[in-house]
Specification:
2 domains; Peroxisomal Thiolase, Chain A, domain 1; 13-stranded mixed sheet; 331 residues; alpha/beta
Length: 331
């Protein structure tokens, strides 16, 4: 399902990161960073809630707008029952829609908010996501105290909070179109190889987006996926070439690789993951380049693995999904 929009614009963005993200190549692009994983809180879970709240506070401060002027908050995270989003929504007392699409939550949020704005149901919406490395690791894989070694294919859940403001008031960047993803089964069951799990979902969504709008990959200055990492990136390029006869090699990258220095930050393994991973790269690096007109057309495809530890232990396959959002500079 692909939709084009007439009056949806990206206004303000905000980012807050943890220590590993601050040590990466985009360190100077974020609004705020922390040197430890607690963010002055008593637990990692509370720290993640802090990150989402702080990103929204920064966003409101940048825009110089009070929360009462915001029509809707759309947010999601990886904690059980999207706890970070729910506790954040309590603070702001804004009408709230909580979403879960794993690491594809940010683009899903943008799509939901964009459709409501474009249909004149609301005038604006904040879209926010968060994730925390320690919270996600002990929830989805092993207790962090266990210290389990990881294979080279494993990705590293990013720690941070990110938020954007979408509006019907014209800005320099518009949300031009979107494609809603389909659930895909690649017959994979390894929670330490998310790239292999999610590459087919990204390929399916990219192909449908381009085909539905009768575009070639070259239409975009950049096609960027979220969280496939080093191995998944290669799988996607190969899949697009063999299955769909489309060449992504000239204008494609992955946020999981862009967020970290995978050569020197050995702990990140194959690259970043988590709902906030792609949002940090988009809002910290890509959106500023669009505002400077270094990039004019970007296809943002966040990818998510849909699973829980119980199903993994029961040897069920890990499903995946990818949602795409097209952003264009307003000339």
């Amino acid at each position: 399902m692909t939709n084009q929009y007439n009056n949806v614009y990206l206004d303000t963005v905000a980012t807050v990161v943890g220590p590993f993200e601050h040590e990466g190549p985009l360190s100077k692009r974020f609004d705020r960073s922390y040197k430890d994983l607690y963010m002055n809180e008593d637990s990692f879970e509370s720290a993640e809630i802090h990150l989402m709240k702080e990103s929204i506070d920064i966003l409101l401060d940048k825009k110089n707008i009070i929360k009462d002027k915001i029509d809707l908050l759309v947010a999601g995270d990886l904690q059980n029952q999207i706890t970070s989003a729910c506790y954040t929504a309590l603070k702001y007392n804004i009408p709230f829609l909580g979403l879960y699409a794993a690491c594809a939550t940010n683009t899903e949020g943008i799509i939901v908010a964009s459709n409501l704005i474009d249909s004149n149901k609301i005038n604006n919406s904040i879209v926010s996501v968060s994730s925390h490395n320690m919270v996600s690791e002990r929830q989805f894989r092993n207790p962090t105290e266990y210290g389990a070694p990881k294979p080279s294919s494993a990705t590293f859940t990013a720690t941070g909070g990110a938020a954007c403001l979408l509006t019907n008031e014209k800005t320099s960047i518009r949300v031009e179109s979107s494609t809603i993803g389909r659930v895909v089964d690649m017959n994979q069951s390894d929670p330490n190889n998310m790239g292999a799990n999610m590459a087919a979902a990204a390929a399916d969504t990219i192909y449908r987006h381009l085909t539905n709008l009768q575009r070639e990959p070259s239409y975009y200055d950049l096609i960027v996926t979220g969280d496939l990492g080093m191995f998944g990136k290669d799988i996607l390029i190969e899949c697009m070439q063999k299955e769909y006869h489309m060449d992504l090699s000239k204008n494609y990258n992955d946020c999981g690789i862009m967020l970290y220095d995978t050569e020197n930050q050995k702990e990140v393994q194959a690259g970043g993951s988590g709902p906030v991973c792609s949002a940090l790269v988009m809002y910290g690096d890509i959106v500023p380049k669009m505002k400077n007109k270094e990039l004019k057309r970007v296809l943002y495809v966040a990818t998510g693995a849909l699973f829980n530890p119980t199903l993994v232990f029961q040897k069920e396959n890990i499903l995946s999904i990818a949602h795409a959002v097209s952003l264009e500079v307003v000339e």
